[in-house]
Design goal:
three-stranded antiparallel sheet; 29% helix; alpha+beta; 68 residues; 3 strands
């Protein structure tokens, strides 16, 4: 009776661990304002008034290039 339970628990543990193996923090990118050209470093697009300007980077200052 315990063998099927152990197999199920082992399978669930294996499935849970495989998702965390590929997890990594979101990368940072430069965004430029369409109005005055000001640039900000963010992980997500700030809105319609901004265009993508470069990246990806590993840090919030957009100084360390990401090597993915």
């Amino acid at each position: 009776m315990t063998k099927p339970i152990h197999r199920i628990l082992s399978l669930l543990l294996l499935c849970a661990l495989t998702g965390t193996v590929n997890a990594r923090p979101a990368s940072w990118h430069w965004w430029a304002s369409k109005i005055d050209g000001a640039r900000i470093c963010m992980q997500t697009p700030p809105g319609e008034g901004w265009t993508y300007s470069g990246g990806p980077y590993r840090d919030a200052r957009c100084t360390l290039p990401a090597r993915y």
